[in-house]
């Protein structure tokens, strides 16, 4: 299973959009506290539309609590400071949990943890001279759809009957 992990997210609309993406690709969404909003915030609910009942959501009290859940899964740290581009990493496994950890919108991931685990870090190439960072929900979608592409869109193969009729 693929897991989207948000480290101390602070913007409710981003989290709502990411919840929708997680639901669309059958990924589990992990939120690491403290959160910069309440989960019943109108902006979170609005961005997630009516998908919240389908979100596979796990809340963690803190970063060490989250790390205990990784177990023998594979952890990827998504950071603009990484040396390896996300398209160079192998995400093709579908028989092992893969966790994609994204940092807080304002300050990213814990620097000490990043320095201790550079081999786990991947980045989305961008022009750092003109753009400080990409939007978090866009970053999640970019990386996770590459993951799904490498996994041959495992679990997303079905086209609904009404969609097939529209294609004719």
TrEMBL record:
Matches recorded under SUPFAM superfamilies: alpha/beta knot (SSF75217)
Cell compartment(s), UniProt: Cytoplasm
Principal EC category: transferase
Binding site for S-adenosyl-L-methionine: 78, 103, 124, 133
The UniProt record lists the keyword Transferase: yes
Record's keyword terms, sorted: Cytoplasm, Methyltransferase, S-adenosyl-L-methionine, Transferase, tRNA processing
Record-annotated tRNA/rRNA methyltransferase SpoU type domain positions: 3-145
Family to which the UniProt record says this protein belongs: Belongs to the class IV-like SAM-binding methyltransferase superfamily. RNA methyltransferase TrmH family. TrmL subfamily.
Name this polypeptide is given: Putative tRNA (cytidine(34)-2'-O)-methyltransferase
């Amino acid at each position: 299973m693929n897991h989207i992990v948000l480290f101390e997210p602070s913007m409710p609309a981003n989290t709502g959009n990411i919840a929708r993406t997680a639901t669309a690709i059958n990924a589990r969404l992990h939120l690491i506290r403290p959160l910069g909003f309440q989960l019943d915030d109108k902006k979170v609910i609005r961005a997630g539309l009516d998908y919240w009942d389908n979100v596979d959501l796990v809340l963690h009290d803190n970063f060490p609590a989250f790390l205990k859940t990784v177990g023998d899964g594979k952890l990827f740290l998504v950071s603009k400071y990484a040396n390896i581009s996300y398209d160079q990493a192998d995400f093709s496994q579908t028989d092992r949990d893969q966790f994609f950890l994204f940092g807080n919108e304002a300050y990213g991931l814990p620097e000490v943890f990043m320095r201790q685990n550079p081999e786990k870090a991947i980045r989305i190439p961008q022009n750092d001279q003109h753009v400080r960072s990409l939007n978090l929900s866009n970053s999640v979608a970019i990386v996770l759809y590459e993951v799904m592409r490498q996994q041959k869109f495992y679990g997303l193969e079905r086209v609904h009957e009404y969609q097939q009729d529209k294609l004719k």
